[in-house]
């Protein structure tokens, strides 16, 4: 395939994605807007002037939204690729298999920590293993027993928790890890408060009510893992809308 053919295919793919995303936006209000190629009746359009004005206005409002969402959808494609790989492995293993594998890996690390490290290091790794195992099992369980909503609301956040919380929990018991993790966490917390949570003086309320020390670091990272899991779940959902798995 020549460079020109590849570029033409890329442009065509982007055009299809953007069109489908905009049609999805239109279908929030108007019927028969999506996948009209497979619909005998074709795309619905209003048959009066007022309705057509509303139709075109809603379409115009969707243009900047599509411009914002499409780059996120591209990230969603990549996220979906890796989550499908992980999900396929988890499905083959099952909940019990994931539990046993997590116990095997983290149990081995805990045993190694018992031999090589001090008591604090051993407790740190043991605590991290409990958090990682529990979060991983809950992520797999919610992904299997629920639909898309349960997967986005619960499975993705627990999956992110399984990645984020173990080192933070371990740092509570290991001074070495604490010196590496907690100062960076404090810097990140300041940035979040000054930029993302400055609306309505929410940052002032948090600063006056809570101190970032000890177990509060765990709460902070859990508070980051949950919305980040939701965001990834939403991006994968957008990718599924634009390009269903069968495509």
Shape: globular
Percent in helix? over 70%
Mean pLDDT comes to 78
Query: Radius of gyration from the CA trace?
Result: 24 Å
By DSSP, the count of extended strands is 0
The description of the largest β-sheet is: none
What is the strand content? under 5%
Count of helical regions: 7
Uncertain parts: none
Structural class: mainly alpha
N/C terminus separation: 21 Å
| Topology as a string of helices (H) and strands (E) | HHHHHHH
What is the oligomer described by this structure? single chain
Q: How would you summarize this macromolecular structure in one to three sentences?
A:
The protein is 81% helix and 0% strand. It has helices spanning 3-27, 49-116, 119-145, 148-171, 175-196, 202-209, 216-242.
């Amino acid at each position: 395939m020549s460079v020109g053919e590849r570029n033409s295919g890329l442009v065509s793919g982007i055009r299809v994605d953007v069109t489908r995303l905009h049609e999805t936006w239109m279908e929030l209000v108007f019927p028969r807007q999506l996948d009209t190629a497979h619909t005998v009746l074709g795309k619905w359009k209003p048959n009066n002037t007022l309705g057509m004005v509303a139709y075109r206005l809603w379409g115009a409002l969707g243009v900047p939204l599509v411009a914002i969402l499409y780059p996120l959808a591209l990230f969603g494609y990549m996220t979906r690729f890796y989550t499908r790989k992980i999900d396929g492995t988890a499905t083959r293993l099952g909940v019990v298999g994931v539990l046993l594998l997590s116990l095997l890996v983290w149990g081995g690390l805990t045993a190694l920590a018992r031999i090589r490290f001090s008591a604090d290091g051993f407790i740190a790794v043991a605590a991290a293993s409990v958090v990682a195992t529990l979060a991983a099992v809950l992520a797999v369980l919610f992904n299997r027993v629920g639909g898309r909503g349960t997967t986005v609301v619960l499975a993705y956040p627990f999956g992110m928790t399984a990645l984020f919380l173990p080192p933070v929990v371990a740092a509570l018991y290991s001074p070495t890890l604490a010196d590496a993790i907690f100062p960076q966490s404090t810097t990140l917390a300041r940035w979040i408060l000054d930029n993302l949570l400055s609306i309505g003086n929410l940052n002032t309320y948090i600063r006056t009510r809570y101190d970032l020390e000890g177990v509060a670091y765990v709460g902070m990272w859990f508070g980051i893992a949950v919305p980040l899991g939701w965001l990834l779940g939403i991006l994968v959902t957008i990718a599924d809308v634009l390009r269903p798995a069968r495509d």
